[in-house]
Amino acid sequence: MAEEKVDVIIIGSGHSGGMAAKVLTEKGISCLMLNAGPIADVHKDTEVKAAYTLPYRNFKKPGQLAHVFQSDEFNANTWVDEQEVPYTYDQQKPYNWVRVRLFGGRSLFWSRQSFRLSDYEFKAKSHDGYGDDWPISLADLGPFYARVEAIFRVSGHADGLPQYPDGNFVVDDSPWTGCMTRFRDAGKKLGVPVCKARSAMGVDGLASSVNLLLPDAFATGKLRAVPNVVVRELSLDKNTGLVNEVHFVDRLSRREMSVKARVVILAAGTLESTRLLLNSKIANSSGVLGHYLIDQVYGPGISCSIPEARDGKATPGLVGGSGLVPRFRNIETKHPKFLRGYALNVFSNTGGMDPRNFATYGEDLQKKLDSCHGSGFSTGMMGEVLARYENHVRIDPNVVDAWDIPALHIETKYTDNEYDMARDAVETSIALAEGAGFEVLAKNYDPNPPGYSIHELGTCRMGDDPKTSVLNKWNQSHDIKNLLVVDGASFVSGGWQNPTMTILALAMRAADHLGDEMRKGNV
Amino acid sequence: MQRRDFVKAMMAATVATKAAMGQQTAPPVKQKLPPAAPKAPGPVPWSRGLMEVKPLPMTPLTPDAVAQTDAHFFSGVQMATLRRLGEIFMPPAKGHPGATEAGAPEFLDFLIGASPADRQHMYLSGLDRLEAEARQKFSVSFSAASAAQADQLIRPWLRAWMSEHPPTEEYTLFINIVHSDFRTATINSQAWADAARARGEQAPDIDLYWYPVDPDLRREGSPSANPRRS
Fold it and tell me: Which of B214, B220, B228, B229 has the most A C-beta neighbours within 10 Å, making it the best mutation to test the interface with A?
């Protein structure tokens, strides 16, 4: 039976929504979770197949998911369909908006890279004069990072670098392979640190809302969830100005429904949360809602071969393993061409080579592939994108999705800071690889389109000043105190780090604070 | 992460989520439906007996196992050029079929025929240019060019590149993309899988395939953004 009013509605079931649900329900607060998509069931929804049995031989259906470079024919049905939920952009400024609406969202499929932001990110403006500082520091978020790292079982090694803060790790003391040692030694000569990567091991290989957060929330008996409902807008109580109702449409039947709530938490993913606020026309007295869209530069990197590992001649322990070069630019010295910095993912590949790395074909190509099998080594950049007001999203008045909800128009582009940083990332990679005695086969200086990283952040930034920010330091709307946004939309700057740990820590901290405020009657 | 590990992990997660949402997770039990009263003039409910049927003792064939693809998109000359390209780029090797044996040219005819206009244009203009250059330089159609002649026409355009960042100039792009497409269409073919099986190997590119999850059957398939409905 429909209730008059629920305590807390959480919109979204991914990492941020799952964490909010876990924290609040464990505090005894009842939550109702709304999710736009269905629950996936691996038993029912998947089958192991070979590419030759697929209709398009794993080329992907032509024209489908053109902006989801990560998609293939095997996983095409896991991503949001771009015709069902379209978005628009200027053709000169492409954007890859990558979404998952299955229950659990993108937490089902993420890469597990787990890093804390440092005060080079939280207090970036104090360091280099650009942009804005966050209203919080690493010290504020540290205790929450530690709790998140324990839940997600983050493996890592303490390196003592301020730009790569150590955490609450399952200690990774694995030995470095020979090729990684050579790469590290080359780094030492150039003053470039090469460290162990940090990764969320989760449980049974999965580090998702659905196995690490939501089960705890459901176990309290205080969480209920409705899949397959697409939230259209929020409305406010005319007398109090507080948000009081969520309007949604059943995804399959198109039936329009609504539910009242004491508190609403948006956790739909950065741009969906902001889209909902823009469509609701609320929470924007600052005028910055939708602005300062950030993501991260991915794409530039190199592909190499380790000569000593060719033709089956690799000695034991030479190949294999991975590492991470954390940001080293603009820490103690100032680079002349760009602000902030980047990290490099570093991998030794013991399998087959990518044939595209060789400018040849036929028998000659096969000879090279056979010779170089197991000798691969690659680097890939993760670079900070500067937060700029003009990089923004707004509602497109001419386009709606399959449920007649106005679509988002995304307008962003990279500038010299990102391109110069990318060039430096590739040239540093080449210097390190050649210093280690590797042969560089291919290199790419060009960033992937903005959005490719699936680390879209900002557009609903937090800050101490309601004139220049949408949220306060507790992820609470400055304008509407019973409205929170706990996903990546709250970020002030993006850093180079995979944002998942920070999103989780912020959501935990915000829910913690909200629970206390609700108990005190302040919300 | 390995896909198999992902399967195990997703199975665990799905069970946890569904159990917590109050849904049954026990495997389906075969139930005998009670005989239903006929709703329409007809002696038997239409679904009678479906729960009891045993799975058919068959391994479904892919169409490629018994049939060839009929090419419809490229012209006769373009198709001949494409076939010769396939012979050059992916000849048979080490017991594996080449592009021709794998039906890759015909498959690409189908694929490109269904592709967006920019991809079609790249292939059409690329094939036409290759043919024109063969005639101009060697006075032969590209389909009749020797391996050495074809190499002279192709090799200057080959590049070493990385995923998502092929060459940008259109003809260079075509040569490199068609090479990559031939490799995929050949390696992911029935013929290649049969050859692998004959050698005691697994078919390449085996992974977890996701069916549509609770699909919205009313989805409207417009090719681009939906205009606002008034």
Answer: B214
| B positions 65-94 inside 8 Å of A (CB) | 88-91, 93-94
Encode pLDDT of A433-484 as tens digits.
Answer: 999 999 999 999 999 999 999 999 999 999 999 999 999 999 999 999 999 9
* CA-based nearest residue to A473, from A164, A238, A135, A243: A135
Instruction: Please indicate, yes or no, if residue A55 is contained in any of the structural domains.
Output: no
Contacts of A172 (CB under 8 A, 6+ apart): A155, A156, A157, A196, A198
**Helical pair A500-520 and A138-152, crossing angle rounded to 10 deg:** 110
How far away is chain B from the Cα of A430, in angstroms, using its nearest Cα? 15
Tokens 């969830």, located at residue: A225
Q: At residue B222, does pLDDT exceed 70?
A: no
ipTM of the complex as predicted:
0.94
Hey, is the C-beta of B160 within 8 angstroms of any chain A C-beta?
yes
Closest residue of chain A to B167, computed from CA coordinates: A444
B23-B25-B27-B28 Cα dihedral, nearest 10 degrees: 0
Q: What is the DSSP letter of A182?
A: H
Q: What is the pLDDT of residue A491?
A: 98
Q: Where are the domains of chain B?
A: 67-198
* The pLDDT of residue A4: 78
Residue A405 lies in a domain: yes
Taking only the tens place, the pLDDT of each residue in B165-198 is 999 999 999 999 999 999 999 999 999 999 999 9
In a domain? residue A53: no
From chain B, the residues in CB contact with A252 under 8 A are: 214, 216-218
Q: How far is A329 from chain B (nearest CA, A)?
A: 25
Question: Do residue A52 and residue B190 have CB atoms under 8 angstroms apart?
Answer: yes
Number of domains, chain A: 1
Residues A177/A320, Cβ–Cβ less than 8 Å = yes
Q: Which domain holds residue A481?
A: 6-43+67-520
> pTM value?
0.93
Domain of residue A218, CATH code: 3.50.50.60
The owner of tokens 């941020």 is: A16
Query: Using CA atoms, how far apart are residues B228 and B230, in angstroms rounded to an integer?
Result: 6
Tell whether A379 is covered by a domain.
Answer: yes
Q: Which residues pair with B93 in a beta bridge?
A: B96
Nearest CA among A269, A303, A344 for reference residue A497: A344
Task: Give A444→chain B minimum CA distance, Å.
Answer: 7
The pairing of strands A392-400 and A406-411 is antiparallel
Task: State the pLDDT at residue B43.
Answer: 77
